[in-house]
Amino acid sequence: xxxxxxxxxxxxxxxxxxxxxxxxxxxxxxxxxxxxxxxxxxxxxxxxxxxxxxxxxxxxxxxxxxxxxxxxxxxxxxxxxxxxxxxxxxxxxxxxxxxxxxxxxxxxxxxxxxxxxxxxxxxxxxxxxxxxxxxxxxxxxxxxxxxxxxxxxxxxxxxxxxxxxxxxxxxxxxxxxxxxxxxxxxxxxxxxxxxxxxxxxxxxxxxxxxxxxxxxxxxxxxxxxxxxxxxxxxxxxxxxxxxxxxxxxxxxxxxxxxxxxxxxxxxxxx
Length: 270
What we know:
Elements: H1 7-20, H2 39-43, H3 47-50, H4 55-58, H5 63-78, E1 86-90, H6 98-111, E2 116-120, H7 128-131, H8 140-146, H9 150-153, E3 155-158, E4 161-164, H10 173-177, H11 180-192, E5 195-199, H12 208-213, E6 218-224, H13 230-242, E7 247-253, E8 264-266
Parallel strand pairs: 1-5, 1-6, 2-4, 2-5, 6-7
Antiparallel strand pairs: 3-4, 7-8
Helix pairs in contact: 5-6
């Protein structure tokens, strides 16, 4: 029995996406992190402002961009024998910057001549397309439901970097991630890229990232240095450990400026 939404539901979702779609572009230099800004304000920021988070494109010589390159180095050289190809990015709670980290990490990996796919699996609140100033009319759901090819729906905003938005938002994301069709889809993109970065929902909100964590090679857990509570991190780690997920490390977002810059890539949380 097919567990995906009916095609009529997909058509309705596509029509709604078309009405809401606002074509955008990268128009100004802005920090990807706004230190001291309340989390709720970051979550409610208008779509046209989200392109300012792409600091590795807008301000490649900044401290923040250098910190992303340091994160890239950790991924490239800390796992030489068994490098992770499919990496799940999640966070304990909403508004902690996982999509921003995902987008900028994808850019710096592509700048290192890696073939990179950014796969938006935050089916409930997708924003990757907004960060790159792209539309969300077509995406992963069109591939999964309609059998469209990846080449038909992905975008390449940066050389070597493909972005696959969600497309029409489904009603039952958790069921989709648990199907054989999605597993086969993920296996297919694994073979075509050096890195597949998967942006997913926060762990403390829904079960989606836990399901995806069992299908990826590793997880990067993104924290807000100013807002994430220790108990939320412990709960997130317990959830990941329960399913045997391989936590590659933690990325500290929105941290105060020290010698290490805006971000910190650390060991697995204890």
